[in-house]
Amino acid sequence: MPHDHHDHDHLSPSGHPYRQDNDAPLTYFQRMEIAVRELLIEKGHLTPAEIATQIDTMDARSPANGAAVVARAWTDPAFKARLMENAGDATREMGFDIGPLHLVAVENTADIHNMIVCTLCSCYPRNLLGLPPDWYKTRAYRSRAVREPRAVLREFGLELPETTRIRVHDSTADMRYIVLPARPPGTEDITEAALAKLVTRDSMIGTGLPLAPENT
Amino acid sequence: MTPKGNRVRVKAMYPPGHVRAPFYLRGKTGEVERILGRFRSPEQLAYGLPAPEKTLYRVRFTMAELWGDAAENPADTVDAEIYDHWLEEA
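ok -> structure tokens follow
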């Protein structure tokens, strides 16, 4: 038996506890969302198909989009210059539909490590990278990232020397951020597409580094 | 408009409602890292009110300024976007 749960009465045949059905009444805001959505449809402003398409569009966005942007910046100095000047426009130039997103790229160097947080809520460059990881929205990450970023990074397995300056970016208003990680050593001869595979989601949030080429 | 590099302080005011200046930065002094442009103020947009355009700044604070002796590394920094009406010259 792979699991050691004690209360065997509440286990499914797989050995996991049953998840409770979500039978609670709708919350105020859930009712509000349904009411507004139904009104928009009833009055002809939106169709159910348009809503489903928009959900599909959002679900199709993923960190792979950002990884492609990072790999382009690593291989094309003129693109990198445009990315640092206006990351939103540079991303649109690559063909990504990011809507009205105002994107700022911040670059990791030998002396500087950048890390992104939204202390007020959960601002994240969703239009490029898709939905944020659950931990990004937790009170623990949001409050600790600005107070003790080094301790947080250590928990992510990243121990930075005291001589590296950490720049935390708090997305408090209209801009969204992407970290441009440093290109890993030993990647001089690999293609842009292979480089993109080294770029992890966390390396674009700043809680990780790109993979080393031998780890892919 | 405050130029890049100027020292600014986040006003230590505590209005109720939807505001985008985090509590931990109120009363703290930093340096304008860049000027981002003009945006409609989310503090009015949140309530569906007429929202005037305001200048948005990125302000850089040192950990020493934010947390004093409790800072992990005093020279590390936090950058945040702060609207014009929250800032005063320092």
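Chain B has a mean pLDDT of 96.
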